[in-house]
């Protein structure tokens, strides 16, 4: 007998499976199209920065920085130039001040007598800034305002965002100080080294006829006035 022939059958997927596959392919296609479109939408959403937009420095009367900032921001709104003058900042940094044996955090002006303005320089914007009460002029060569370099602006803004406040040092090396707290209270010594980061000072005190270095906290010493 001749061997029996094998019959080959084509197995068709159920209609439900075909529908599921097609739906899956459609979902993948839609997802791919969305991913491709996302960067384009982001590019459209991000407005191009105006290259004329620069930071300038204005000089003010000493101690009038805050008042100048308030006055200028009021003039920007009242004179309708918010589209040409964008930001007014006073560069400051946090500082720990030690006074009367107490620590307190204060805002110290990095550049006393100066205010930074981000603006598009033009006749009208120049007029608004220059004629603000308390402003004595722009910083620049002659009568022409000079814009700050981007690197300078980034450095200043980064300095303002520093988390750890600096300790204000009120004495210097070689200065005579008095110990006001601890086992060496009432001893008179000479400042040998200062560590602002740790808030420590090394003082040479006379102990049994010999100068002995003692590390103290800033709060433990006071200037001799």
Give the topology.
Layout: H1 15-45, E1 53-60, H2 65-78, E2 85-89, E3 92-99, E4 102-109, E5 114-120, H3 123-130, E6 135-138, E7 140-141, E8 144-145, H4 150-160, E9 166-167, E10 176-179, E11 188-195, E12 200-207, E13 210-217, E14 221-223
Can you offer a commentary on this structure?
The protein has 225 residues and is of the alpha+beta class. It has 2 domains: 115 residues, NusG, N-terminal domain (Alpha-Beta Plaits, 2-Layer Sandwich), CATH 3.30.70.940; 48 residues, SH3 type barrels. It is built from 4 helices and 14 strands. Strands 13-12-11-10-14 form a 5-stranded antiparallel sheet, with no helix packed on it. A 4-stranded antiparallel sheet has the order 2-5-1-6, covered by helices on one side. A hairpin with an 8-residue loop joins strand 10 and strand 11. It is elongated. The N terminus is likely disordered.
* Percent of residues in β-strands: 25-35%
| Helix/strand/pairing category | alpha+beta
User: Per CATH, which architecture of the largest domain?
Assistant: 2-Layer Sandwich
Number of DSSP helical runs: 4
Q: What is the averaged pLDDT score? A: 79
What characterizes the major β-sheet?
5 strands, antiparallel
Name the CATH homologous superfamily of the largest domain: NusG, N-terminal domain
Helix and strand sequence: HEHEEEEHEEEHEEEEEE
How many β-strands, per DSSP?
14
Number of domains: 2
Give the % helix.
25-40%
Give the class-level CATH name of the largest domain.
Answer: Alpha Beta
């Amino acid at each position: 007998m001749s061997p029996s022939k094998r019959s080959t059958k084509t197995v068709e997927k159920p209609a439900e499976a075909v529908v599921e596959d097609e739906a899956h392919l459609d979902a993948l296609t839609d997802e791919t199209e969305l991913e491709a479109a996302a960067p384009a939408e982001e590019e459209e959403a991000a407005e191009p920065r105006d290259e004329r937009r620069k930071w300038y420095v204005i000089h003010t009367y000493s101690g009038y920085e805050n008042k100048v900032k308030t006055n200028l921001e009021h003039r920007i709104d009242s004179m309708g130039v918010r589209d040409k003058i964008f930001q007014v900042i006073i560069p400051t940094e946090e500082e720990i001040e030690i006074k009367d044996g107490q620590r307190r955090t204060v805002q110290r002006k990095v550049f006393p007598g100066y205010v930074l303005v981000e603006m598009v320089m033009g006749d009208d914007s120049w007029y608004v800034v220059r004629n603000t009460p308390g402003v004595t002029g722009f910083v620049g060569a002659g009568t022409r305002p000079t814009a700050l370099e981007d690197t300078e602006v980034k450095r200043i803004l980064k300095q303002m965002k520093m988390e750890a406040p600096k300790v204000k040092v009120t004495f210097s090396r070689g200065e005579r100080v008095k110990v006001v707290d601890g086992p060496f209270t009432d001893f008179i010594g000479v400042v040998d080294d200062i560590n602002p980061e740790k808030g420590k000072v090394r003082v040479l005190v006379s102990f049994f006829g010999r100068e002995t270095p003692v590390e103290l906290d800033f709060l433990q010493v006071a200037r001799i006035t």
